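A note on notation is needed here, since sequence and fold are reported together in a single record. The reader may check this reading against the record printed directly beneath this paragraph.
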Amino acid sequence: MSEIRIAIVGVGNCASSLIQGIEYYKDKKEVIGLMHSEINGYKLGDIKVVAAFDIDRRKVGQDLSKAILAKPNCTKVFCPDIPHYRVEVKMGKVLDGIAGHMKEYSEERAFRQAKETPCDIVEELKKSGAQILVNYLPVGSEEGTRFYAQAALDAGVAFVNCIPSFIVSDKKWARKFEEKRLPIVGDDIKAQLGATITHRVLTKLFSDRGVKLDRTYQLNTGGNTDFLNMIARERLSSKKISKTEAVQSQLNEPLPPENIHIGPSDYVPWQNDNKVCFIRMEGREFGDIPLELELRLSVEDSPNSAGVVIDAIRCCKLALDRGIGGALTSISAYTMKHPPIQYSDSEAKKMVEDFISGKIER
């Protein structure tokens, strides 16, 4: 099989975990955290990063192998021996990629904008031979996400949108990619076993077992740059929509807005890339007897999503091979919080298997 050549925008903690994972597992027979170690011949080691874009002065101009370990990245280093990639991180477009409050924090914690002139993104994508652009911009980068989605269209590359800015679930954008026969996967990555997937499964369990869910919340704290970025509440509107709809979709009747609260809650610096989630669910069983469930989940945030992104990338490449453009319904439903169509996670998994085998088109 050929290589899967990807470009990355946003060389943060998630990009660091993705690249570490590619190197960590590329020569191992057993891979933890993927749907399959091989998808129609494509293995994890077939993924090759050929271009990267960022706007932080500690990363721009650096080889990608160094940039993924630069501050303010703080995810765990589980693969310290990253080879020299010979991929220079290019200066991207700033747009709305930096929240204004970031300048109030130390260099250890926040972005520091590089002074270089932005490169020609479309030209760099073409020159690199990238086939797929993976979007890891900070939450709230609405303008930035649209800019890079258009750049992908102009360069003729597919798009995997890992953040809650709605491209794949927007029919107008999906149509644009379909017309160019370029596949897209999104929106907003759903971790391997994170807050949203856990909350979804429990919600579906309540529904399947006949328990009436009356109210629920999900509170999340973390100390990485993503949580620091989300202190600016105005950047959270799409994130809250994405996470809330992901849970509401598992109910036959959605809860009233006042009875459901889901979203990032606070930034705790010393947690670094560790994310702590608190879920509470209140419901009624037979006889209107009250039932309460409380759960605490602690995960290393960025590695928790890396394997899922690898599955999304490989399915995206399958669609490219097959000449399929537009939104990929199955892998989006399985890997993303805000896909074009919501399914239960068990249904979505079966759909992906059918897509891989060729039983369904997308």
Observations:
- Residues 303-322 form the longest helix (20 residues).
- The chain has a mean pLDDT of 95.
- The CA atoms of residues 135 and 161 lie 5 Å apart.
- The chain has eleven helices and 13 strands.
